[in-house]
Amino acid sequence: MDLHIIHSKITVMPHKLQFKVIHASGQDDIYRASELNHHSPLTKGWQSARFCLYPQDMVIQLETRSRLRKIQILSHQFLIPTKIEFFVGDVPDGAPLLLESARYARLGYVSLSDNEKTGYKARELKSVHVDAVGHFLKLNIHKNHVNKHNLYNQVGIIAINVIGDELRRPYDITDPDLLLDDPRIERDPALEGLFNKPDYISPLDDLAFDMYQDPEIAQIIRRLERKKQEAVLQERYDYAKRLKQAITELQKVGEKLGKMEVEKRQAVENEDYDKARLKKVQMDEYRLQVYKDLNLNDLLELTGSRHPQHIDLEPVRHYSPPTPPPRLEELPPPTIRTPPHYEEYPLPRSDSVLEVVSTKTIPSYYPFDDMPLPNQKSKSVIEPITVPAEETSKSPRPPETNRSKNNSPRTPHDSRRLPPPKLKALTLEEELPPEPENNQEAEPMSEVDLREASTAIDIFGLSLVSKAYSKTWSYREDALTAVHHQMQQMPTGNKEEAKSMLRAAIFLVKRGIDDKVYAVFRAALHLYRMLLTEFVPKHKLGKPDITSAVEKTLPNLFHKAGDTAVRNRDDAKSFIQEMASFPEVKATQTLAHECVKPFKLTLGPRHAQSRCEIVESLYQNFGLKGGLTIDNIMKFNVEGLNHNAGEVRDVIERLIKTMYKNHGAPIKDYLPPDDEKTRKNTLWRQLFEYFDQVDGKPPRTDAKKQKAEEEQKKQAEIDALQKQLQALRDMNAGKALRSDRSNGPIDASVLSKNDPSKKAAPQKKKPEAAKVKPKGNKPTTKDDDDVSMFTVDNICIFCGERNESFTEEGLDIHYWKNCPMLKRCTNCKQVVEIATYTDHVLTECEAKSNFSKCPRCSEAIPKPEYDQHVADKACNPHKTGQNHCPLCHENISSGEDGWKEHLMGRTGCKQNPRRLLALNKPAGGAAGNKTTAARGRGGKAGSVRGRK
Hints:
Distance between the termini: 94 Å
Largest sheet: 9 strands, antiparallel
Helix content: 40-55%
Number of strands: 15
Strand content: 5-15%
């Protein structure tokens, strides 16, 4: 193998770039900009001057012209800017490399949280991907978030990290061999994909590690990492595994020593030299003991390697190494530090807003707590940064416990008292993961765990269940695998024993689903699948057993479906979908009913969104089967629409649209009424507009325009009728006769100018003037009785009553309260004719969408009562050729006379309260009723609109 090709193949990865701050528009006397040139636990960072002007500018210069791939900013815990803009600067060809010669291009900006939720005790680490080339990086730092701790309106940055590649030849982003000098590299397929990852950014370059790791431990970790890569290339896999486990241990040790170093420095600043001396002694003893426990000289092969040929895997980083400690003079200078791994999800970049790849909240070391004495327990409230257990596929697998003669579990380095007890060095045999058949016992279970797992212990034994409760994840995985094998091998015949084993296995499955380690979680799903698809049919267990198993595990699966790790979420949701297709589970309909149970609105957005996506997938895959109905899904949807997270409502809205497309109008029964008030809400408006689109209706804006045109046309007709009415009034007063003698025929349009009905409506809640639509009314003549005593204003055109008090105001009051031919609509409060009340409710009323017409009695029935009304068939049928009263529901004589006799006669409608008032009026108040009523029968009057 050509070692030069290996070296070039590995150096293509982006890495940390060395830089220095060359310009700052302001700085505090103690927290200067030069603090940003170095990364360590003792870094204080930069702070702006007190009461400075914003924005503040800062320029950093890279050692060489580079391609920037990632920028990291660690902000202060309470001196926090609202946002930071980034500009990349480059120097034109031929120009000197000076700050004044730089030309800048804007990359975008990031916003920072105000940190109120953490109580200003943690720091925010922003990481963003960029792709730009230049010599300079300029930061434009905007005004600060206001809080009670920031007394002088300052901003602060603890550290800046830039990751990228130095350019070794003219920049061409489309060139895949941008940084490769050797043309033979791409011709070696054996190494393809092993170390050549052009877009991969090593976790060793992460800023979080640099700020929290002891420098000496960091150089050792780097050395071990290089040794591990060398061992892989030489196929020394056992040695590589030992190195991997040692790196995991040293990461925890380095974090703890880094914190102790900060505490020692704080003690010096406080002039507490006794405490500082004690910290130094503790650190030295702890460091030396760890080196002995790990047998570091053997791991580094300082006593002689079995493969002495050196393989230079990566170039040396550009920062200056610290002085080697006296105990490890033989160690080489450090090259890079290894941070804890954090899973990141790249997002597309924007021209203005830089998409944040990751945002981490990192605890600050201030204020400090006393570290424990050698015989005391730690009282520190600051926890070390550790690798999440669920990310074991990307981070080194934790080493197995090293056991002493008394079989007690090994205590991890970061959990020991200081100084730690002497432990024997690790050996390769002790590092191998235990296998179920090796008869290795896990650590003893506590009394609480023994009581909790008593049923499982009775079935599977204490040894196996102890492994399921072990702190070592490989033991937990092996326990589930052993249960899987044991359940498969169980013979048929004893159903009660099978039920007991199922219950015990489900108990262990629940623990496995909740496990943070992905391998254990996968093993639990594998066991659960076997139980539902093989074990249950094989032993012919009934629906109660299956229902119990599903109900016990679904809450755990729902919780896992909202996990922070993407693969955990996807696997949990996929398994729930798979469960729904199992014949045994599908027959119980339990899963569907559990999925569509409305969740609490306090449920977190991620968990709520997962629940909604599960219901959506179930509906898409199975439709209204297996326990899913329109009723239970829509009740779930309506509750979900009330969630305060937009991503949750988006899923629900998408599901409702799909269901309406498939099922139509019944979906609307679960939603608010489709009216103007509802459509003011954006969510409802979008839904109802989609419904209109599906139904083929024109957009509501077009309907409004058409309605406005109809209203204008109707108003024009009313105006014409008002003009005719005014002409009649003038003729009765004698004006028309005089005008006729002098000027000829009367122009009704001229007379209407003085129409008193045109005056402004009164503010009191009473009816407007009647808007009359006479049909065939004969003009009054001199032969009519007492025509000189009455005018048109003195007559009610509906009931025919004459009264001198029937002026415009008097008629309004009569229509509103007394006329027996009229009534107030109970929904919109308008005054309408009783004869046309049903048509009004169904076609004109504001609440018309809430009513349907009964095909039997032809009356307007509220929609919630409609189905029962039609099914009962208890209503009085409407007979053809007769009128049907909406008050007493009886059929009456046809025509206008039939209505008047029914609504005004002595033996008429008993449900019309105004009829008795009209009959009991004094005789003088209704003078001339007979003559006028007879005239009124000449044509049917129209409807009256009253004020709401």
